[in-house]
Amino acid sequence: MTEGGTKNNTIPLHSLVEETPGTLANRGAREAERLWVGREGTAGGSSVVIMSTSTPARGRRGRFGSAPDTGPRAKFSQLLPYLLEHKKVLSFVIVLSVFGAAASLTQPLLVSQVIAVVQAGRSLGTLVWLLVGLVVISGLVSGFQHYLLQRTGEGVVLSSRRRLVQRMLRLPISEFDTRRTGDLVSRVGSDTTLLRAVLTQGLVEAIGGSITFIGALIAMIIIDPVLLGLTVLVIGVSVVTVVLLSGRIRIASRKAQEKVGDLAAAVERAISAIRTVRASNASEREILAVEKNAENAWAMGIQVARISALVVPIAGVALQVSFLVVLGVGGYRVASDAITVADLVAFILFLFLMIMPLGQAFGAITAVNQALGALGRIQEIILLPSETQHDEAIARSAVSSIDTDAAITFENVEFGYAVTSVDDAPEPLGVLHGVTFTAERGKRTALVGPSGAGKSTILALIERFYDPTAGVVRLGGVDVRAIDRHELRFQIGYVEQDAAVLAGTLRENLLLGSPAATDDECVAVLRSVNLAEVLDRNPLGLDAPVGEEGVMLSGGEKQRLAIARALLAAAPILLLDESTSSLDGLNEQMLREAIDAVAENRTLIVIAHRLSTVVDSDHIVVLDHGKVVGTGTHSELVKSTPLYKDLAKHQLLV
């Protein structure tokens, strides 16, 4: 609900992940563009689009009218590490597969012996029981092997999701600025499941099947080379066809997964802004947009199905044609006494044994190519550098430390976001220009300026969400690039402008930055920010759910919960980005008192749009278009800085 009491009915998206993969980092490239240009800088009148590394550059169309394949590709060698994690189980499965192949190859020989014995009028003895025993044992081995492959397939999916999530949540913030939330989650929830098919649809079984194939081939050569030659001719045509189609399967599968990612992003976009959509009477337009993405995903799925439909029946057709050829020609050769009936029956059984692993091989080719299409999208994220990957090299280039009592120092800092113009030429979107100021230790520094002046970007640079393109940011006189990010952020409490609340409980939100905090400490900090009512209205207390993105809380309550989380961490430096913007007068006063209580001996850097939040600050920095245009106290700036005087006149409500 809002601070006034209107309930927020945003639909939780996690329930859609299985059928339509959904969300993770921000609101996508368009939202990032709106935030950057509207809040931190301007585009200067030229058309600007945020650069997205998740969307391949569009090239010229190919000779047949389709765009060239420029998406991420994976090689089979990149799939091997996922399989080798389970090499012990897979080795055992291969042994079972070899045993099953031997049992299968023995059966036609026994059948041939049974026929010969019957023709000779002798007793079958133990031959029949031996044949029955082999069939039963083959069935048991096959069932156990199937279970192991299914279990290992789930293990491959799990390990791929672990790798992907571990890398995804360690990516630089700039990657989340340019990638769509739904597409990222689609890679975790949808693309990874395709890796399971590598094991469950014939790849490992094809190893044992190759033994069966070779064994059957040798036996068929011994029985009748002529029949074998005709059989190989039919099978050779089918193999060539499958090889030609396999590459198209990989490309189509990857494109299909990309369309599923587009669909997930479209659903996430519509649901996350459901109030705006309804208020704008845009529900039908959004439904059409989502349906269009669903149709695109369907169309690519149909394309995969068409290609697979050509591959899947090839083994069956090859078997039928081979069987008819063998039956016709073999019958003629029996009539001419070239081979015996027992030999023909054995040959036909070996034919079935040879075609069956061929079908497994065709299935494996299809499954592997589909998996490689999805793995390309997975590897695209995994191969991106993590936020800390180049920190050692960056630390070596950091400027030397200085002796200072200041907590935070900016020295001629320049910064711009990476964007591309309409002609795809990279160019910086300048946000900060030669920013220099000092935040004294144990004092309160306020950042003031019109929207788009670069205030939030300054806090982002202190947190090292980004590094400056020029100049230096210091913490206690030390270049922040020379400080371990974990240690740096341990010293800083940060409350974002949009007051993030994670799905879960009050306790889980509070413990996010202070995992060792006690229940008493959690309750005390909630009461200090006037959230006692939230505790009291639900008998679960700290275990009360807050809903998806804090849907069970009002806007002001979400903001106060975010501040409580920062206060509980008790970091020596506290960054507050417009922390009281959603509060009424009473709650703002109570929150100011709570912040004042913990501010003693701590450094506060506050972004505020209200004069009441600014006037008590020890130091005020006035920004305009990314430049510092004035510093001092309230009384000094009213006299010296026209922009601040104008802002103060209007109560800083900009």
Highlighted features:
23 helices, 654 residues, five-stranded antiparallel beta sheet, alpha/beta, six-stranded mixed beta sheet, Rossmann fold, ABC transporter transmembrane region fold
Summarize the SSE layout with pairings.
Layout lengths: L27 H13 L7 E3 L25 H9 L2 H34 L6 H42 L4 H6 L2 H9 L6 H5 L4 H19 L1 H48 L1 H6 L3 H53 L5 H42 L8 H6 L9 E16 L4 E15 L3 E5 L6 H8 L7 E6 L2 E2 L5 H6 L1 E4 L10 H5 L8 H10 L3 H5 L18 H15 L3 E5 L7 H15 L3 E5 L3 H4 L4 E6 L2 E6 L1 H7 L1 H8 L5
Parallel strand pairs: 4-9, 4-10, 7-8, 8-9
Antiparallel strand pairs: 1-2, 2-3, 2-5, 5-6, 10-11
Helix pairs in contact: 3-4, 3-8, 3-12, 4-6, 4-12, 6-9, 8-9, 8-12, 9-11, 9-12, 11-12, 17-19, 22-23
